[in-house]
Amino acid sequence: MEEQTHARASDGHTLADPAHEEVVDNAAVELPLGVRVAAAWSWRLILIGIAVAAFVWLIAQVAIIVIPVVIALLLSALLYPIVHAFQHRGYPRWLGVTAAMLAFLLAVTGLIWLIVSQFRAGFGDVARKAMVSWQDILGWLETTFGLSADQLNAAVEQVFETIKDNQGQIWSGALSVTTTFTQVLAGALLTLFSLIFLLIDGKRIWFWVLGFFPKRAHAPIDAAGKNGWVSVGQYVRVQVLVAFIDAVGIGVGAAVLGVPLPIPIAILVFMGSFIPFLGAISTGAIAVFIALVYNGPINALLMLSVVILVNQIEGHVLQPLVMGSAVKVHPLGVVLAVSAGALLAGIPGALFAVPLTAAASAMVNTLVEKNWDPGQDPVADYHKKNRVHREAKTRARMNARTNRGGEGE
């Protein structure tokens, strides 16, 4: 037999090779401790970065599925208290789910109807005012820069010629818009479908997902997930409050300045404010445009000042302080999370950045503090309770049939 690299002692343990020990000792002497620690951290961080990049890439490939599901999770966190209130009063769960879905659909439908009806009632006047403003702008251009009507008409004709020459690209863009509309419609249906099942059977879905993890990880992951869910619910409710304050601020400002259609403007701001920092000022631009068309540039500048003021209050007071305290995330973390989300994933990233950060923070804190019972298996307990409940229902049905049979005799 060939000579072994490592000798074995009489008790069976392997003895280290002296030459190997000398090499290790030399490396330990030559390399400072800081370099070795930095190297160990570096390759681990590289592996973590690769894993995170792969996960983000995978999410981007199925974004049309992920985004509706995440929206459904946020909506279920908002509507779950209604379901819980019905169950707490002894009503069946399906009745609570029906009430929550009806409340949600009625709220969305009412807001959309109010916006459409208000704009439809004032759209004709807006169009007429817009034409008058356009004529005033043309007159100002002609007076200030000496542009004649023929030159302006030639410029307009040039625009139409450009459109005619690029019909292929325009049709391509139209088809792209159609595809986007189809994706939005499919996403809306998937969101509604997911929301219904999350409200009906969210607990069973959670324990089904939890069952894929090792048994010893069930208790810590369950505790972390529950705390993350509570944090998401707090975020959604506080975000509704922030959106309401934005809507009232811009709507009241529009009414005070005499800008038409203040109610639909406020509703648009409310719906847009669910995108932190960016939504309120984007929808407020509509109020500025209406103020410009109806009341002139001075009034539009005042309306713009109101929009910027409300946006600054949201960005520097409501989002960092109110939202940060509700979701237990530092104000700087809220700002950085929204900025990073918008940079990485645009509007969806800005919308989901804060709830994901809040959930991650709550889950990490739970795991660090070890707030769970290590001897408990929540998955096994859940299945046991379901089995006992099914057996009880079966016995109740059998007893009912037996009693009906006895009464028949």
Secondary-structure blueprint of this entry?
Blueprint: H1 18-30, H2 33-61, H3 63-88, H4 93-145, H5 149-165, H6 167-210, H7 218-256, H8 262-272, H9 278-295, H10 297-327, H11 331-369, H12 378-408
Molecular structure report:
By secondary structure, the chain is an all-alpha fold. The protein has 2 domains: 62-203, no CATH class; 211-398, no CATH class. 86% of the residues lie in helices and 0% in strands. It is built from 12 helices and no strands. It has helices spanning 18-30, 33-61, 63-88, 93-145, 149-165, 167-210, 218-256, 262-272, 278-295, 297-327, 331-369, 378-408. The longest helix has 53 residues, at 93-145. The chain is globular and about 90 Å long. The termini are far apart.
Alpha-beta classification? mainly alpha
Q: Overall 3D geometry?
A: globular
Cα Rg = 31 Å
Largest sheet: none
What is the rounded distance between the termini?
Answer: 90 Å
Helix content: over 70%
The number of helices is 12
User: Unreliable stretches, pLDDT < 50, 5 or more residues?
Assistant: 1-16, 170-179
Number of strands: 0
